[in-house]
Amino acid sequence: MNGDVLSCQPRNDGSRIHRIAADGSTSTQDWNTSLLLDECTALAVDPAAPGYAWVGGDADGAERLAVMRLAASGGFVDAWGTDSDRFVAPDDSGLVIARRLAASDGKLVVAAEAKVGGEAHLAVARLSSLGLLDTTFATKGYVTLKAGGKPSTTKTMALDALGRIVVAGTNGSGVAARFWP
User: Which residues, including other chains, have CB under 8 Å from residue 152's CB and lie 6 or more apart?
Assistant: First the structure.
């Protein structure tokens, strides 16, 4: 997948991933809600495993963050994550939907939105190579932040040269936060 371009297209019955390979060939992968990921909202290639990518969104129509691993063949990887074919955030985490994904040191960083006490928060989660919360990050594997004491929504994320996570969003005005890995 090195040099591949991926895009996501929401559809009434699920989502579609388009892939344009470095050699110019194209492929399309469709999935519907029976595959347990309602809507594709984030994509990232896996630099540690050529040919693989991650797809993030929400699960089960219940506003719970979900991430699946996509193989070079176009299918999803079994035996990955908390539900054996995907990662689904714990109910009590408040994590609701993936906004951006990035790979770092074989782990997946997920910029997300969370609902805590009914209010929106910036959120970051880190998953291990097995698709489980990495508890070496923020003790629980995720952290939420109500920036400036106001409800905050996540818009984008980047990893800096030292692997620190920078998340930007809004709470009525622009906000940014940096998290150490």
Answer: 120, 121, 122, 145, 146, 169, 170, 171, 175
pLDDT of residue 79: 73
For the beta sheet containing 107-116, the strands, ordered from the edge strand earlier in sequence to the opposite edge, are 95-104, 107-116, 119-127, 142-145
CB-CB neighbours of 86 under 10 Å: 23
Q: What is the three-class DSSP state of 112?
A: strand
Angle at 37 between CA 112 and CA 122, to 5 degrees: 10
Q: How many helices and strands in the chain, by DSSP H and E? A: 0, 14
What is the tens place of the pLDDT at every residue in 89-125? 888 889 988 888 888 777 899 999 899 998 999 999 9
* Domains in the chain: boundaries: 5-154
DSSP bridge pairs for 121: 114
The pTM score is 0.81
To which residue do tokens 């040269």 refer? 161
Here the tokens at position 84 are 């054996």
